[in-house]
Structure formats: C-alpha cells, structure tokens
Amino acid sequence: MDLAKKVIYQVYTKSFKDSNGDGLGDLPGVIEKIPYLAQLGVDMIWLNPFYPSPQHDNGYDVADYCAIDPRFGSMEDFEHLVQVCQQHKIDIMMDMVFNHTSTDHEWFQKALAGDETYQDYYYLRPAKEDGSLPTNWDSKFGGPAWARFGETELYYLHLYDVTQADLNWHNPQVRLELQKVLNFWLTKGVKGFRFDVLNVIGKSPVLIDSQEPGSAQEKSLYTDTPIVHQWIKEMNQASFGQRDDIITVGEMSSTNVLNGVQYSNPSEKELSMIFSFHHLKVDYQDGEKWSNPAFDFLQLKAILDEWQRGMSDGQGWNALFLNNHDQPRSNSRFGDPDHYPFETQTMLAQTIQFLRGTPYIYQGEEIGMTNPDFAEIDLYDDVETHNNYQLLLAKGVSPAEAMSIIQAKSRDTSRTPMQWDDSPHAGFTQGQPWLSVAPNYPQINVERELSQGHIFNYYQNLIRLRKEYDVIAYGTYRGLLLEHPQVMAYVREIKDQQLLVLSHFYPGTIRLTLPSEFIDRSAKKLIGNGPLMALNSEIELAPYETVAFYFNEQA
Q: In the chain, fewer beta carbons within 10 Å around the N or the C end?
C-alpha cells in the first residue's frame, strides 16, 4: 500500500445522489456515480455514516454500527457497491463514530432500562452536592455537556449533541465491541477507516470542573490524553493492524504536532494519518468560530508550514484537505469564486495537494461548488447552526449579522446536494431534497463542467502528476517566502528533483522576486492555471494564479 500516491474522495452520502426520489442520497446513488469518480482518478472513497440513526447529527448519532439505515439502502446495496468499486479499482473507507453512540442505540436503551452492564458503557455521574451538574463542561454544540439519565438521579456526558452519549472507553468491553465493529466491516471488503473525533475518547475516570468552561484548558481535560494512544494501539492490533492494505485516518480536534506524529508515525502502530484543523481556524475572531472576519493569510501559511515541517521531522503523515462536510467551501472562504471561479478553485487545490501527505477531495470541489448563502435560517438543517444562531441573537448580534455569520460558517454550506446537471434540484433527486440545492446549480454542475469547464480536468491532472512524480508523493517539504503577504511558496525535494510551487491568494497582479537558487536553471512548467510560463529573477503572478515548476538535475 502506497499512501503517498493515493488520493481519497469524500462522499457525503446523504447529499451525493438520490436514486429513489425520497430526497436523500443513498448507496444505489453512489453506485450509479462510481464511473464518474473513476474518471476523476481517485483511489478510494470515504463514505460519511449511513448506519441506522435518528439523524439528529446527520448520521454521526449511530444507533447500530453493523447495519445500513433503510433510508440509504440495504446491506446488499453496500455489498454491490464494494463490487462495483473493485471493478473500477476504487477502495472504500468507512466512517467510524466511536466517541459516542446515539441515545437510540441498543446499549444506551439497555442502560436506561436499568442494566448495570450497559450503564458502564457510558459516563454516568450524580449531581454535585449542591445539585449542580457533575462538571461545568460545555457541549461543543452549545449548552452544558450533561443531560439527565432517564428518570434516575444520574446524568450522562455528551460532548456533542444531547442525543450523542459519550462511550466509556475505560470499560474493556466497550473497546472489544468497537473492535468487533471494525472486523465486521473488514470482512465486507472495506479497506479504510476514518475515525470521528478520536482524540477525545480519553476522558479521565474521575471528571473534574474546568477552570474556564468552553476554553482550551477545558478541552485539555479530555483531548489527546496519553491513554488515547494506548487505546488506538490496542484497536490497531485487534483489527486493521493485522493487515497491511488498510488505510486509517483520525479526525483529531485541537491536537498538536507532537501528538500528530505519534498518531501517524508507522513505528507507533496507531493510524496511517490524521486530520488536523488549525489551518481552518484562521478566520475565527479571537478563536470564535461563529464570527466572520477576513482570513489571516500569514497565519494560514505559518500553520501549514508548522505541520508540514513537524510531521515530516517526526515521520508522521498529514491528511491534506481544505474542504469537508464540517467546513465551509474553501473557494468561498479563501478566494473569489464569483469573479475567478476557475483560478480560485484550482489554486487552492494545487496548493494543498502538492504538500507532503495524502490529499482528500470533498464532493463538488472538483466542479467548483460554492457556499449556498441561504438568506433564511429555516433553510439550514444543521443542529449546531440553529443552536449558534440563537446564541448569537442572545448575545445581541443583529439578525442580519447573525445570518451573514451563518452563511459563512454553517456546516450546511458544504452539505448542499451535489450538482449533477441543470434540471430541477440539480439532478440530485426527483423528489424534494432534504436540504435545498445551492441557487447557482444551473451554472455550476457536473454536466456543464465536463462539457465546457476546466476545473475537473485540472483535478485529474493533479491526481495524475502525484502518481507520476516521486517528488510530489515522497519529497521533503521546505517553506519559502513565509512573510510574503499574498503568495504561498514551497519546495518539494527528492534526490536530484525539485518542485517549486507558487500560489497567489489574492486578486490583482503581483510582481515577485524569486530566491536566487531557482534562477538560471532549467525548469519545466509542470502545471499552472495562469499565464506564467518561465522563471526569471522577477516574475508576475495573475489573480489567484498557481504554478508548479519541476527541476531535474539528472535530466
């Protein structure tokens, strides 16, 4: 298995393709579009959860880990999907939500019914002597992180939605059950696992108050604790680690480089790679997601540089991404898709995909899908969005300003249905979609992109080049021009080969003085989205232009 040459495509099943007109994407819809993904050139698809779920958090509230929710299809559909993917040389990565279960899960229901065995599957605690909640922790979705456990005097911990009860990993039986889940899907032909919020499983057996609710200090009480590494190693050895053809990635909230290395260094026998998110918080005002300042470009560069160097030095491995189902569309966030749709999307794609790591493409970015900018809160479905809209209003933010923040930061910005063509609902469904389609679908859709666009083809070339050039897959990383206010630049190197990547993140034209090491050398333009063809001591970059030059001293 060669991690470095693989490219993974994220399918948000619920929004990808609806085959039966009920308004929800489903597994037969995914099957129908596998040839399209094969045409793009990806090696693996990561499927967001389609397990039985009440859908309070879009499937991340799992009620049964080893079944298919009928609204998404059947186990026979999944087995057919595996076969079709194999025919197209595409592997499948499943999404594992192991920090918590739905309160509808059989384990939680048995616990509620009084079964002490299953009560120990969760964090159940009595109120404090003064009657207050067991700790003062905040839920990441807003409000307290504790809810009353049925009719008892106990409370259960939920770091996320109130319907998502945190699992007690200190109980060996819980860990055994989750290992069985992984082995169940391995027998179905799955070749990858993405672990949701995995680094918060390590809560202490004794839970204490935070000094400042909702702060970084509070998160440190349950994030990246040493026992997390121990439990991941155990899970590795009991399931996917027994095979050498399985890819794993952990979603690591608020982690640091040191832990990132340990999670992903092959010698640690934990995971193949990790998602870190610090680079996607550069448009948070004072660390607050629900705000809408201009993004801090120098901070974006500094964070990417820190993780590239740190993970490389420690033999860790990055998952490379700017988009997913929890993030706004990167072209709406970091560029200008209205005036420079091709340049913005391809610049961002090339910048991230030519770094050291494994690239992830989120559905729709390969055709330039954007944030939908819905004008009414009722058009948003996401529980986190609605909670924080109310919190913004409660803080005195005007409804208009609150909506502008929601338009920029809601998780639903990237969850709108995939835009296949210009027919009603963008060809996603014959029925009423669960979430409205972005209004620009007549202009931005797969059919139009394949017939007259250039973004999809650019993505194909980025994927092809990663497979053809070892310097992209395996080369070291070195940052350049780190203080430049508009250009991100870096070098990838292996043996006698170098790749110089230059990306202009702003409109307007800019003149750039190149480091002398790249002057008077034979360079081949490998790929670019603008007019620059050759290197001189001074070059000019067009709006949102990106370019990669290849040097080979042996050629």
A: C
